[in-house]
Design goal:
Helix content: 10-25%
Order of helices and strands: HEEEEEEEEEEEEEEEHEE
Radius of gyration: 22 Å
Number of strands: 17
Largest sheet: 10 strands, antiparallel
Strand content: 35-45%
Structural class: mainly beta
Oligomer: single chain
Number of helices: 2
Length: 261
């Protein structure tokens, strides 16, 4: 009888462990999409250059960080860039840390000082024109304070070639400012974006700063795209590629992770 109880208990525990493992395996897990060593899985598209041409080594990996660098530039002449991750996404969270470093390169526009971002719902990189500064996308804008006391909140929404709804109202402004915090130094800032079919929310250092829904193709910058993209005006955006931006100010990224659901 004792032996029988032992076998029942043993196999019961084993089955319970297996069931627990199965449940844990089915729970979405965060995964890194930047290996900290090179740009494997990422492709640059820089304005004026073919897809894959990392002009002047703008995007680089050093000391485990993904960097936007202008060390090899003498002058910035609208070489706006985007580094695309290889896989399109639709329902997910993405998180990373960023910080602005150094000085803006000569030739950069004043508005682009301490200005970068992560673009979501991007058009496929191979559909961008040779001379197209920005992909059709939704941008979680990263800003840094320039003048002490002058607010310049991070986490704003910019909409190149897109429209969104906020509180059930269509918003056609190119950039929608938040009331988030302004960061003046070179500290690391945590960003998370939650993307579902119902809503998209930006978080800065754990705090929600803006939420919107129902993105569609249209508006400012659409005229800079191909005829094929322009013909999609009014079409809903339910997913797309993500990309990291270069706009003339050095910036560093780390801990880039995605959770799909």
């Amino acid at each position: 009888m004792a032996l029988f109880i032992f076998f029942v208990a043993f196999f019961g525990c084993k089955n319970e462990t297996k069931s627990t493992d199965t449940k844990e395996a089915s729970i979405p897990q965060w995964r890194s999409i930047f290996n900290g060593t090179n740009l494997e899985g990422w492709t640059p598209k820089i304005n004026g250059y073919e897809l894959g041409n990392n002009y002047k080594n703008t995007f680089r990996v050093e000391n485990g960080l993904l960097k936007v660098s202008y060390e090899e530039y003498d002058l910035f002449t609208e070489e706006f860039g985007h580094l695309f991750y290889k896989t399109p996404l639709s329902n997910y969270k993405i998180r990373l840390q960023y910080r602005f470093v150094g000085q803006q390169v000569n030739g950069g526009q004043p508005w682009a000082a301490k200005n970068s971002g992560i673009m979501i719902h991007c058009q496929a990189p191979e559909t961008m024109l040779l001379k197209q500064g920005f992909p059709i996308s939704l941008e979680a804008q990263f800003l840094g304070g320039i003048q002490e006391g002058a607010a310049r909140a991070s986490g704003n929404l910019c909409t190149p070639g897109t429209h969104v709804e906020i509180n059930a109202t269509t918003v056609t402004e190119h950039c929608i400012e938040t009331k988030g915090k302004t960061f003046y130094g070179d500290e690391w800032i945590r960003v998370e974006i939650e993307v579902t079919q119902d809503a998209i929310t930006h978080y800065i250092d754990g705090n929600p700063v803006i939420s919107y829904s129902n993105p569609t193709i249209g508006g400012e910058f659409l005229e800079t795209t191909s005829k094929e993209i322009q013909e999609k005006e009014g079409q809903a955006l339910t997913g797309g590629y993500i990309s990291l931006q270069s706009e003339s100010h050095p910036i560093e990224f780390k801990n880039i992770e995605v959770l799909e659901f």
